Amino acid sequence: MSYPTRPRLAAAPPRLAEDGIELSLHQVEFSVQHPRPVQLMTMLSALDGRTPAASLADVSGLTDQEVHKALTELDGGGFLDDPAEPQVKAAIDVMFGLEDELNRLFSEQVETSRFWQEVTERPAAVREHVYFGMAIENWHFLYREHLFDSAVLTYPNSRAVRAEMNHFYIEEHQHDDIVLKAFTALGITPEQMRRARPLPTTMALVNGLAWWARTDPLFFFATISVLEGGLGSGGDTDSFIDACQRKGLSTDFVGPLQAHARINSGHEHGQVSREILDLLPAVNPADEARLAGQCQLFMELYANFYNGIWDYYSQPGQPLLRVLPGERR
Amino acid sequence: MALDLPRRPVFRPGVDLVISERSADVGYRGGGCVIDFEDGSAVQAGRLLETLRSGGASRHDLVREFTKLPVSDVLHQLDVQGLLTDAVSTAPAGITGGQAYRRARRCYVATMAASGPCYPRQLSTALTDETVTRAQLIGYAIEYYHVVAYCPRVLAPALAHADDHESMMLLRRFFQSEMNHDRMLVRSLAAVGIDPVKTPLLPLPSTFAMMASLGVYATQFPLALKAVLFVLEEPQPEFNESFIANGRRLGLPDGFIEPIARHSDVNEGESHEDISRELLERITYVSTEECVELEKVVADMAEQLAAAGQEMCDWYGSSAELRLRTW
Asked: Cβ of B5 and A278 within 8 Å?
């Protein structure tokens, strides 16, 4: 084991006795024999967490080899501490950096997607099925939210984060049931919805998030705000609801979507990523690099969610509900 | 949760700010916005934006200084546009992974030392005293079989977690080196007429608790798994030598003793006990809370280990006949 560069003695101050040096750690006494006990005592006294290991030979009069041997044995026996302060960034600082990257990718990939361009700029010209399809895929996503949220409810590294995520999940739970009511207006029953299949682009996003939540929870935390509409989502406006209304879709369909949007708006879930990272003290440099590196992939999955909706539901003739082969719609 | 982030707002590096008397042009990455000032507060608005360019002031400072402006709303709008970040925070408290290992190891030693009075009947003592019975030795082999048979199942989830390449390779090599060790124990048990595959056996509660703990940490708390692995990999040469000697004394066949002796040699030859140190030394930062949790995990595993020593002694030592835990 490589001992600390500025070792600190974890044991109580050593005592020079007739038959050796006595060390005490957790009420257990150890006796150390050494051919040059006075010099070893001097070295032990210099293990203050400030004196470099490299200068202990000069300080004590022991040889470099003797110092090396003594430090190796002391560290192996659990007698040394490493008081070095890790050089890391605060987690919230890392999150602000990730947000910048996510904002850039969002504007490049999602805002400019065909779905959002058409829905926000030419809502009346967009086929009704695209609006219905967006609601359907959004429901499929919400219906599977437990797949990813569940994995972080146990987050063992931080009590505060665990509490916050459980609170978040309580607020998210059963949101699919709110949106489900919209499909009655389309003649689709809840049972039909539950038997239907999402688009592969929706499943890719769902399972991508579930994987990250299980294997890289920090990254999952960083994505939540994007999925919840970002910092601007707390207001009274919702681009998709606006487009539905400009299209003149029935209130029976839009109403439940609007109810869901209002609930989300009240919870300010667009800020959850910041809240979570603010509760964590720091992020390791290797983790930071990985988190930043994965933003691109996440945003591709997210953009594909909307691209998939446009590609499928804008095509005339595609059935609204995707069912298993051989199953009646 | 009411958010006050960013706490000390400052424009992101790269934000282009042009302030004139009546408005300001805030540009960023080809986008941005034009902010029109209101008549009565134009001077303050310009100064607020200048302040945000240099940073350093807290939200509270800004609200107090720019009384003519709806500072919180302005900050929110700039934030929504992605134009703000926070001043760099102070370095958080924590320790290195290497120091976390030192603390975990010390915690293990202290817990083991303290567990004696709680678990006074130990298989190791019976081995040293040569009071151990044939049933206890076979019982130990059965529990050992459970441990190595569980290993792939409980460790595999750890391989899924995101980590740096070398850490993933360390875990993968450890996983591989633990694979198929149950075959050695199956051979041992076969020599005394036990086939745990044909006749499924239940582990003792403490054996199961150790394996369940490893599995849970591997799934949900990889940092804890890294810290705790060494507890089950500590070399016990005296225990092994005594096991072999007692096995011979009690006339147990070589076919029973040898695979167990060989398995112990394999583990010690591969320095398995170094795995926690190697993994934790690669971690730059462990938070204060994480370190406490790691120490609790290690202390618990040490106590489970002590409990296992007593449980094996008690269950398999309660009668001369071997009490198989069949279902």
From this structure: yes
